[in-house]
Please model this.
Amino acid sequence: MGLAVAYELCLQGCRPVLFEADDRLGGMAASFDFAGVLLERYYHFHCLSDQAFFELLDELNLQACLRWQETRMGFFLDGRLYPWGSAGAVLNFRRLPLITRIRYLLHAARCLSLRDWKPLDRISASSWLKKWLGEKGYQVLWQKLFTYKFYQHSDSLSAAWIWSRIRRIGQSRRWLKETLGYLEGGSEHWINGLATEIQRQGGEIRLSMPVDGLRPLGSSALGAVELTSRNGVERFDAVISTIPLPLVAPVLANGGADPDLVAQYTAQTSVACACVVIQTSKPITGNFWTNVNDPRFAIPGIIELSNLRPLKPHITYVPYYMPADHPDYARPNGAFINDSINCLKAINPQLEDADILASHCSRYRYAQPVCGTNFLSQLPPLNPLPNIWIADTTMYYPEDRGISESIGFGRGLARQVNAALGRGGPE
Ligand SMILES: Cc1cc2nc3c(=O)[nH]c(=O)nc-3n(C[C@H](O)[C@H](O)[C@H](O)COP(=O)(O)OP(=O)(O)OC[C@H]3O[C@@H](n4cnc5c(N)ncnc54)[C@H](O)[C@@H]3O)c2cc1C
Model:
């Protein structure tokens, strides 16, 4: 989102300075060197509805690198792997009564036709899903997915948030077949493209440079915001923050903001993710995504990137989401990796130790915001202080965090800020 903001500001004729705390660009979409392959720390796919992403690729001349692939889903339940995702697979899923399978499909269809999501903001995802699928259907199909992502927050998630997730995947179909996208070269490709454009147009990028404090100085003067970083204190006409909202709290507090305002940012909840990636000499399944409902493994599913993007040897992600204060989050990376290997072996008993070629575990503290019921009314304001705008992925609720959504929102925000400063658009 920060890159998209800076890029759009450049197009509007501004000269933005981008402060990034990490040693690389991309945040959740950043990559690392995994056994000689540049790979994203967290799995990513694109959907047919990702309009803002497609527009950006066009502008960066990268549209030819976008590839679409028919993908399959699976469901690993109590030691057995079932096909999942298509209407036929759901109807054949004998672990649930036929009426529950039909209710599941009706709910999926309802998610595609529903337009007014505001009433869903007020009710919980679990009660909404139970109403549609029944207690047993919810237990088998959803409960474990929520528990191993949100733990104590599972029962308070907003129905609007889960609706937007189901709809996004449901819409990504061609001839009724799930079709997902990937970019050749991965996210690094568009991230580098954006960085090059920003710098070419006079913007500046500073890596390993966390912002420590923000203080508004007046209402509309030039240099109206004081920003503190390792470089000391600098003045900017305006600041647009795109760091996770909970991290905004100390930055505002250091600038002397009202404690009631700071508390609004502290109150935002997010779960962390320890995301294991494993390179194997053979596939685990033929699926891109396999939901896992098995008491031995504390994960919602596994994601076999190689079944979307033809990467060899085979790449599988195993994400462990949990609140960062959960005792398990303190476990060493090796423990998550061992659990992941055991899980992959349970799903594919043909997998042997010799097939495991490499492994890695990345961690992100603010990996998934918890969007609870009545979330809309709990969001802090977008422009809480003069010439300071603050957004993160929750600002485009009920959409879930996503690359396209962050790009689209960030670009719109940059145009809005530019107009508020009375700068007008590009020449
Ligand atoms: C496991 C996982 C899987 C995902 N899968 C998908 C997917 O399949 N498809 C999809 O579209 N999206 C997916 N996403 C989401 C996608 O990666 C994000 O929505 C997108 O990258 C959001 O980017 P952002 O810039 O809004 O936020 P972030 O990526 O969180 O960026 C925030 C940035 O702020 C920086 N920062 C923090 N504090 C400071 C500070 N004080 N000063 C300066 N900088 C600071 C951070 O280092 C970071 O770079 C996934 C995310 C995760 C974690």
About this structure: The first helix runs from residue 2 to 11. The pocket of flavin-adenine dinucleotide is lined by residues 1-2, 19-22, 27-29, 42-45, 210-211, 242-244, 247, 251, 273, 275, 319, 364, 367, 392-393, 401-404, 406 (CB under 6 Å). The chain has a mean pLDDT of 96.
